[in-house]
Structures are given as structure tokens and as C-alpha cells.
Hints:
The protein is of the alpha+beta class. It has four domains: about 35-50 and about 315-385, conserved putative lor/sdh protein from methanococcus maripaludis s2 fold (Beta Barrel), CATH 2.40.420; about 55-60 and about 235-315, Efflux pump adaptor protein, beta barrel domain (Elongation Factor Tu (Ef-tu), domain 3, Beta Barrel); about 70-95 and about 205-235, CATH 2.40.50.100; about 100-195. The chain is built from four helices and 23 strands. The strands form six sheets. Strands 3-12-15-14-13-16 form a six-stranded antiparallel beta barrel. It has a four-stranded antiparallel beta sheet with strand order 4-11-9-6, with no helix packed on it. A four-stranded antiparallel beta sheet has the order 8-7-5-10. It is rod-shaped, with a radius of gyration of 48 Å.
Amino acid sequence: MLLKRFLYVTMLSFMVLFLGCSEKIEPGNLEQGKIKTVKARIAVAAVTRQPLSYEAVGTIKAGTISTLSSKIMGTVKAVFVQGGDTVKQGQRLVAIDDRQVSAQLREAEAAFAEARRGRTAAKAARNAAKAGADLAGATYNRYLNLMKDDSASRQEFDEIKSRHHQAQATLRKTDAMLAAAKQRIKQAEALVSAASVREKDALIRAPFDGKISAKMIDVGDLASPGKSLLVIEKIGNYFANLELPEHYIETVTLGKKVKVIIQALNNRSLDGAIEEIFPAANEKSLSFLIKVKLPGQKGLRSGMFARVLIPMDEADMLLIPSSSVIHSGQLTAIYIVDDKQTARYRLIRTGRLFEESIEILSGIKEGDRYVVIPPLTLSDGDRVEAAS
């Protein structure tokens, strides 16, 4: 019984071995079946002369910022704008209750009218005094001649002389009154002018085309002289302010072109120029304040973060497109294409980033071919067909 079972198992094993051998694939058939071909752009690694730059951190600031404040005291009747609004020069921004300044204007105008009437009366009194003084002077001269001929008494002459002196005194008095009346006219005119200005100050208008960056007042608040109401920034006039370490200060000059990258605008790159270099360094940070003027750009706002690339020197380096690099966890790699058009996954070490290119420190050398934009379907060992 045991012998039969042993023979049965032995025959079954030989049959399985025979069937397995009959389905064996010829050498090479399996590998060729698994290899796939992927189309991709292929480039040749080359060393290029690349300008180096120092990357500084900056903040966007408006070149012209105006804080609008009240010149009069009164209740805010209306606020016509909100933070972030774009305004035109002369546009109404805030209205302040002008009843008090209107009353002051009417009072000043009344004082002016009264001063003009006083001047008219003083002028008439002066004219009368002048006529009286002329008559008294003529009479005095006539009696002076009569006294020489003994044709008039001493008493008559003294009376005429006294009236002459009184007339002269009255004329001087009316002259002073007229001068005082003219001075009151000037004072009244100044009061009217000042009151008129204060009445205009009750309506605050935009000093230039700009954007409201801050609003510190609401309807019903009390406005007083010097109290800030709004902050307005001039449109199209922005700077990137940065601090440059003293080590690099000799590399910058006024007018030097720099690249400014605005992260909030999808890393948009702007061409700027150094507008101002502050002469004294910050004692704590040992750095100099630099102002870079920016071109007009829609979307720019004060306070935005900026990266400023300041050209320094040039150096030879191996650069490839950033799109070629594959990041997998802590590993950085690239697909090399060998002489047999086979993709080989190779680890690399990268260096500095230059816009759309990246520096290669190790892993590939000049003349190596690589895949520019690796397809998701590409694997190590796949055949690569160059795509245009």
C-alpha cells in the first residue's frame, strides 16, 4: 500500500515537471515584452556662464503716501470711501459738519462790512477836517499879514491862530481814524479769507489719484485739527525697500538694474532700478537701506513681500531646467538617457535656483543626455524616443 502511494506521488511530480518545461519561454522573450517606449524631450547637459546675484528680502512701499487729517473741529457727516477704494484727484472723501465754520464765516463777513462802513465814515470825517483845516490855514495866513500892518487886533489874531491849530489837530485825528479804518478792513478781509478756507476744509478731497490704504474715521466721529482720517497711496509709484549687508554695499550703485520677484503675484518678476542708497548703516544689523523703484504693475500693494536679486558676478556652472528634477521624499533625481536610448534613474545633488533653471553639483556631467520633462509613465529601464 505504501509502495503504491509512493509511486503515485513520484509519477505526479514528473508530470508537473514535464508540463512546466514544455511552457518555457526562449531567452530574451520575457524582457522584450516588458520594455515599453516613452516619448519625451531629451536635452544635453552643458556648462554655461551664469551671472550670480545676492538675494535680499524686501517689502513693497508706496513712493507717495499721504495721511489726510482734519483742520477743523466738527462731527463727521459722511465718509464717501472705504479701505482699498481707488480714487481720483479732487474726489470727495470725507464731509465734516460745517455749521460752526459757516457761522464764523458769516460773522467775519459782517465784521468786514462794518469795517467798510467805518472806513467810509472816517474818510468823510477826514475830508471835512481837511476842508476846515484849509479854511483855518488861509484865515491864519491872512491875519498874519494884517498883524504886520497893524490892521488886526492881537485878540482877533490869537483866536484865528487857535482855530488854525484846532483844525490841524482835527485833521491829524481824522487821518489816524482813516488809517485805523483801513487796518480794520485788512483784518476783516483776513478773517473772511480764513473762514472761507475753513469752510472748504469741511470737505476733504483726494490730493492725487491713488488708493485708500487705511480708514480711521466713521460717520458720527468727532474730527479735530490734526486727527488722522484716511491714508492714501499714489497709484503706480511703488518701491521695494530692502536692507543690504555692508559686505555688498560696494557692489550697488544708483540706477543699477535688479530683479524683483513678488510672491503674492504668482512670483511675478519685475525689472527694477536702485533709486536711493541711504548713506548710514543700521548700527544693529550693520546693513544699508536700499530703495528700488518699480515699474507700474497692477496688483502691487504696500506691505507685500519681495525677493530682490542684485547682480554680483559671473561663474561657470551646469544648469538644467527645474522641470527635469524629480523629488521623492529627501531624494532628488533625474532620468539620464544612455547610448541605447534607455532611461536610467540617477540621484543628483542640486545647488542654486535661477528662475526656471537649477544648478547641478553632482550626479551628471557635461555632455550627459537627460529627459527635460519626465512623463509620469516613465520608469527606470524604459526605452526613450526623442520627442520634438
